[in-house]
Amino acid sequence: MSLVPQVLKSLKTLPPFPVVAKRALMLLGHSEVSIQELVEIIKYDPAITANILRISNSAFFGLRREIHSLHQALLLLGTQELLKIIIASGATRIFCRATPGYFNDHLGLWRHSVSTALMADLLARELTLAERSISFTAGLLHDIGKLVLSLYVDQKFTEIMEVVETRQVSFQAAEREVLGIDHAQLGGEMARLWDFPDRLRLVIYLHHLDKPEAYADDLVLLIYLADLLVLMFGQDLGADGLAYEGYPDVLRHFHLRERDLEKILLNFGSSWQEAQVVFGLMGNDDGLQCVNRR
Amino acid sequence: MVGVADLKVSNKPEEVLVTHALGSCIGVAIYDPEARVGGILHYMLPDSSLDPVKGQENPHMFADTGLPRLFRECYQKGAQKSRLQVKVAGGSQVLGSREYFQIGRRNFAALRKIFLKNNVLIDKAHVGGTKARTLFLEIATGNVWVKIMGQNMEPL
Q1: Interface residue B44 vs chain A (CB under 8 A)
Q2: In which domain, by residue range, is B32 found?
Q3: What is the mean pLDDT of residues A27-40?
Q4: Superfamily for A4-278?
Q5: DSSP string covering chain A, please?
Q6: Within a domain: B155
Q7: Does A266 touch chain B if contact means CB atoms closer than 8 Å?
Q8: For A102, which residue in chain B has the nearest alpha carbon?
Q9: Domain boundaries of chain A, sorted by first residue
């Protein structure tokens, strides 16, 4: 029996995407964003301003001077970098919640999302793609579908796992078979309800490359690869493990060899720990505060 | 707690060493039941020739530089090679072709090659597949468990 009607119905009670993060999303990738526009976005949310200062001052960005104001942060980090921080700060509110079926603890999905964002950023730099701030954000939001699907995955976990194991298909394909819908499809639906920019919505919808149109945008392929590499790195794995398809076409597309993947993992390992602290996943004092702790 | 690219060795009976969420990485637990000394290495990649500088900075990243250290540190605490129990977990793979995304498989292959050369036998291994594993070693008893994410603990 398909659970699709039930799943879609649960979208009616979907909390709104945090306004501040949403406004920042709209400015992402625009070449000219004025200080005024940024200040307009943030000024109604003191918690985000505090987070921005905290993150800007963390060792992660390696700035030598201490930053006391938004203006300073902007001058030293640049607008696109700052937009990333604003989006991440806003997004913690929807991410810090239990996602049973995928993760045991309420930070599991946030941890995986931050890792994928970081990996996407690193890959974009490695492959010299121009769109680093979009890559980061797309990585951060690629799995939003799991926020809602998790309850249903939890209910049907044994059945889903059985499909994965007996037929060696991906966890996502098994979700679709057992529940009638998978986390990428549902994520795409959520992105529509939240009015995300079209390109971001498509990344979320296509990030497991199960439809031919996925190959039309390098950003989709980049997020797919970032996700896969993060799974291989292992530290934020969930109950779905590494049960996703590895497509060699993507490696060929980006001219990557196995050895390059090892190098990328190596670099990722070096920056990962620091990022964990920044995004409130380790230690409590200098990281982002998780507002929605349950 | 043994992190990624990390190594812990102990002879304190009250301690349980654990390394979390092995993907394509490998966790190696060795234990000498007489000396009651054991250790876990969690390495990421097969071979330090990839980046010798990083291999020197943190030898625990690679199989070829990390494994000798694991054994040496256990010997320093009184372990003897002939008594060591050796258990291995991790080395998972994503689905699909056997030619690509093979870091997990290469990680395990590197370990077997090094063990073969040094005459070390693996007592138990829980490797490959698509599962996320956490590895535990109890210093008091030498008991080793593997927890697969989303499933129960099982002794190894």
Answers
A1: yes
A2: 6-150
A3: 79
A4: Hypothetical protein af1432 (1.10.3210.10)
A5: ---HHHHHHHGGGPPPPPHHHHHHHHHTT-S---HHHHHHHHTT-HHHHHHHHHHHTSTTT--SSPP-SHHHHHHHH-HHHHHHHHHHHHHHHHHSS--TTT-SSTTHHHHHHHHHHHHHHHHHHHTT-S-HHHHHHHHHHTTTHHHHHHHHHHHTHHHHHHHHHHH---HHHHHHHHHSS-HHHHHHHHHHHTT--HHHHHHHHHTT--SGGGGG-HHHHHHHHHHHHHHHH-TT--TTTT-SEE-HHHHHHTT--HHHHHHHHHHHHHHHHHHHHHTTSS-SSSS---TT--
A6: no
A7: yes
A8: B150
A9: 4-278
Q: Out of B4, B21, B100, whose CB is closest to A258?
A: B100
Q: Is residue B113 part of a domain?
A: yes
Closest-CA residue of A relative to B100 is A248
**Overall domain count for chain B:** 1
Asked, for residue B15, whether it belongs to a domain, the answer is: yes
Q: What is the pTM of this model?
A: 0.91
Question: B81 vs chain A: nearest CA distance in angstroms?
Answer: 30
**Which pLDDT belongs to residue A286?**
43
Q: Which CATH number characterizes residue B27's domain?
A: 3.30.1330.200
Nearest CA in chain B to A153: B150
Residue B1 lies in a domain: no
> Confidence class of residue A47 from pLDDT cuts 50, 70 and 90?
confident
Total CB pairs under 8 A between chain A and B: 115
B155 touching chain A per CB within 8 A? no
**ipTM, interface predicted TM-score of the complex:** 0.92
Q: Residue A257's closest chain B neighbor by CA?
A: B100
Q: Each residue of A146-173: pLDDT tens digit?
A: 999 999 999 999 999 999 999 999 999 9
Question: Would the CB atoms of A263 and B93 count as touching at under 8 Å?
Answer: no
